[in-house]
UniProtKB/TrEMBL annotation:
<dbReference type="InterPro" id="IPR011678">
    <property type="entry name" value="EMC1_C"/>
</dbReference>
<keyword id="KW-0256">Endoplasmic reticulum</keyword>
<keyword id="KW-1133">Transmembrane helix</keyword>
<comment type="similarity">
    <text>Belongs to the EMC1 family.</text>
</comment>
<feature type="region of interest" description="Disordered">
    <location>
        <begin position="856"/>
        <end position="881"/>
    </location>
</feature>
<comment type="subunit">
    <text>Component of the ER membrane protein complex (EMC).</text>
</comment>
<dbReference type="InterPro" id="IPR011047">
    <property type="entry name" value="Quinoprotein_ADH-like_sf"/>
</dbReference>
<keyword id="KW-0325">Glycoprotein</keyword>
<dbReference type="InterPro" id="IPR058545">
    <property type="entry name" value="Beta-prop_EMC1_1st"/>
</dbReference>
<keyword id="KW-0812">Transmembrane</keyword>
<dbReference type="GO" id="GO:0072546">
    <property type="term" value="C:EMC complex"/>
</dbReference>
<dbReference type="InterPro" id="IPR015943">
    <property type="entry name" value="WD40/YVTN_repeat-like_dom_sf"/>
</dbReference>
<feature type="signal peptide">
    <location>
        <begin position="1"/>
        <end position="19"/>
    </location>
</feature>
<protein>
    <recommendedName>
        <fullName>ER membrane protein complex subunit 1</fullName>
    </recommendedName>
</protein>
<keyword id="KW-0732">Signal</keyword>
<feature type="domain" description="ER membrane protein complex subunit 1 C-terminal">
    <location>
        <begin position="772"/>
        <end position="971"/>
    </location>
</feature>
<dbReference type="Pfam" id="PF25293">
    <property type="entry name" value="Beta-prop_EMC1_N"/>
</dbReference>
Amino acid sequence: MRLRSSAFLWLWALRYVSAFEESEAGVVDWHKELVGVPLTDSTKALPMFIRSDPSSPTKKTGMAVATKSNVLAVLNPGSTGNVVWRREFDQAEGRILQYKTHRDALVSISGAGGSHVRLFEAFTGSLLWERQLYPPSLGRLLEPANLGVDVTFWHELSDIDAYVLTNGHTVSRLEGKSGKTVWNWNTDDISTLLTRVVLSSTSIHTVGLTKTDSYALTITTLDRQTGALVSQSQILSQITRGMRDVFVLNTRDTKAPAVVWFEKHDGTLHSVVLDSNILSPEIASTKIRFAKVHDVQLDNEGLFVAETKDELPYVFGMYSTGLKQEWDFDDSAVSKSDTPSLFSGSLDREGNAYIARVFWSLSTGLAHIHTYAAHGSEGKGISTGATFPFNTAEHGVILHCAIDAFMPHSYSIQHRMLLTTSTGAVQLWQLHDLQWTRDEALTDIKVAALVDLPERKIAEEIASSEHRGFLERLIFHTVGAQNLPQYIAQFSKRFATGTYTITPGSSSSLDRDPFGFRKILVVATGYGTLLGIDTAQGNVVWRKIIGVSSTGPADVIPFKMFVTKSALEGPDPEVVLVAEKKLRGRKTKTSVVFHFAALTGRWVSGGAAGIQVSETEVAEAFILPGQSNTIGIVSADGKVHVYPKSQPTVDGASQLYFTRAIGSELRGFAIESDLSTPAIETWKKAFTLPATFPNTAASRLEVIHRSMSPIASYGKVMGDRSTLYKYLNPNVAAVLAPDCAVRVVDLVSGAIVFDSGALPAPCVPPKVAFVENWLVYAHEVGGNSTDKGTKVVSVELYEGLGKDDKTNSIESSSFSEKSVKLHAIQQSFLFPYPIVALGTTSTKFGISTKGLMCNGHVQKPNLPSPPTHSDPRRPLQKPTAQDQEEMLFQYEPVLPPDTRRIVTHKNQVLGTKHIIGAPTLLESTSCVLAYGLDLFHTRVTPSGTFDLLGAGFNKLQLLLTIVGLSFEQYIAVYNAADANGWISSVVAIEQHALDAIQRIGEFTPDKPNHDVTISDLRFILEFSRSASSYTTLASLYWLEDACAFTKYMKEETVKDSSFIETLSTFASMTVEYAIDHAAGPETETYNCLIGWSRCSEHVSKEPIVSGTDVGNLLAVLWDDRELFLKAMTYTVSPGLSPVIYLL
């Protein structure tokens, strides 16, 4: 199995997608490299400080961690704690079981039973070699998983090979340079589980446990050169807790291998030295009875810690003569207000050993560290104590402490600590000073929301004037008037130069930037924490603990998150998290809500304990229709609870509907609008596994709701001027079933409106994105070299059975026949790399093209093809003229790579699981967040920056030109000498125009002598600039006559360029007046107005201008685009701007 060495985030779109240039990397985006929460449940994979080989000319120090995200990494202990290198192991291979450093190398063992062994360069991460010792299917699934796995090295350069124990019964010697197997040895005793290996000068000793009434120690000795069995012995013992009470050490005086074990029943310590064929166990000569022992990772130094029932710790050393007490921590008497102690050990550059004891004291409110140095005070040993201000309210409980210590002189110990906390934080402390914090809980984000920031001036004004009276406000505004000249100067400069600060993050306060790019990211993690992140640079601005977590999951499980108060409603946006809470000592869960401020994490109500709304778990949560700040929570017993508590009324609906996925069943429920009665089950569908699927296949359903965003267009106009109306039923969602089929289901009626069909078994559930009427799903396909890869299916859902078949799906009842009357246009493509996440962009008004974001793992910089390739309507044959007009080109089954679509540049964004988009104040721009292992935030422009002027645009010159032309027009129009003549000419033009309008009204196609000249058209155009023309031209009858006349003249007239130019201008003026007619009642949208599609607000209203007439007019404008553009210079009206956009 390969390592996932790099990942890229790609952007696809229906039409065109703009990625930013490389020079903008790090300016408009940020990437937070994460490694995951370190493993603390196994002594074989604990975080530790590592150092370069003492003989190396360069002295290096790092911090090695193996994490719950299956990542092996080395961190820099410098000022930021950045990642030196990291490797993400394939989840299908299995978790990391052990890692160990030797000189400048680092070896890892992973997979079931330790099937994979890899050797890395410790400070660069370069993979030196990797070996798969056996198929993962043959691995033993032991508990804990790292039981039966171990690795060791000989300390001299004469032997650089690795000695590896795997599967609890196999010992292998692997060449240090290549990883090739030198020899293997397997035990024949199935009742013995081998757990540790240790070397002597000529032998390798394995230590195992044989199950009897308790456990018996089995010591097996092999020849290092050949792997031949030398001897095997068994020592009877009273070990009851397995390998937790067994240590394999080297003696401190002779460096011979030894075994130490603890027998809990009588609190005694036992040891045996493995330096002869005859093993002689010894018992520690002490009257102290111990309750537990601690491995401090000082095997080669022969040190460990034993603790009494009263939690008094003692340091013991292993010698050739037996165990000896080295030190005790009696100088730090244990108090009932202290937490249980943590112990860890380390070596300095000279090889001297240190042991640290860390605990937190409730009485002092501080964390304490006591450090023991065995060689201090001239070999007598020394212990020093210190405190540091660890914040338990923000970071929870300390789970592990790795120490790095040294002695500047014989009676002083300097140290730094790497802490792992229950909230998933990793911290480096230098004595009592916190150096940095890494919030690794962000690798387990359960729910996330991007919240808009308030504008600074508005927020300050609201905050300062909230309690002011009239007189105070009057004085405030009077004093503030002194800043008016400065404001005018700044406004003039900005207006003239177009200078805006588009790079957020310069302000320390959380304020909105001019274009709304900067937001606050609010996340809830699986470690019982809430975090607020400034999207300007990715910095964490606040943290809150909502759940208790130690080595296991937190007792609070986030369900959904809602923004209940936006920045438009006040200066302090608010968020509500709906979650489930486990009760101690009970298997049931309760439903709770947490209400807090998005910018600061301040609790609005309820506090860190939350507010319990139900004694059962959450079934569904949603914002009540018509009440943006009221949340409905449906509990498992079917009851509906409202937060905040009130007497809600549901606007515009007699019932509410929701669904629950229970196993392989999807069930629909209905709730009465007064929310007084429990939900009633209305339908149920079972998605059972096909018989061809294995019994081990997952049987759970996943419901993917459609992204909610504004819809700018309800249809797609084809090249033949017909229309495909989008299927926009608000009640549908995509459902992933156990058979890996993607189905679109109406969650109100239970009707299946689209079914992709099951995938061949076995299968991995596809990745799905669903927005408006566009559904995209991707899944891996197997086969030969020609068809192996990822299959990407693009589906568009349209109303009715074909073109111009409209069912008004956005308003139709889910129980009507029209709601399931639709057709799908789909096409599949083959993509050469796996896709691990899909998401779509979102813009403020929904006008920009929807962009599809995908993340895939690759090993070289190959990227997907241009996004226009993913249009499902691409023709299979040579494109026709109509296809070309819609910018469609011939279908090709493979999506080729395209480096222009990278938005991550050189960043390795690993482990992405979710991609979400958020709108900005610019319609062209969408913010995109990808999260999983890493966090990556950027902004993209799916349709280009059409609403943002380029950096080279000379705005000052444009303003001066406008001012000059306006002044010239003023002089020309209001010259006193010409005023009377101008009035007379206006009257004459108006009369000529009215006569021409009358002749056009009398025109019919069967009367070729229309008697309308080019002069008549120019009189009408001139007349249209007068305000008095509106009542004449903005008329239904005139618009119909003008449309008919234009169509006829375009088809029948000779190719007279002057006439065609005037006719194009005439046609544009006709469309313009049709749009201007929208000022009338019940005609608020352009689609409704000109008959392209029926808007949802005015279903029963007839269009002012028919779709056929408008199509004919646009055909005139389209065929003579050059003349039309020239003609536009003579027509100045705000009505033209939407016409240009529609074109």
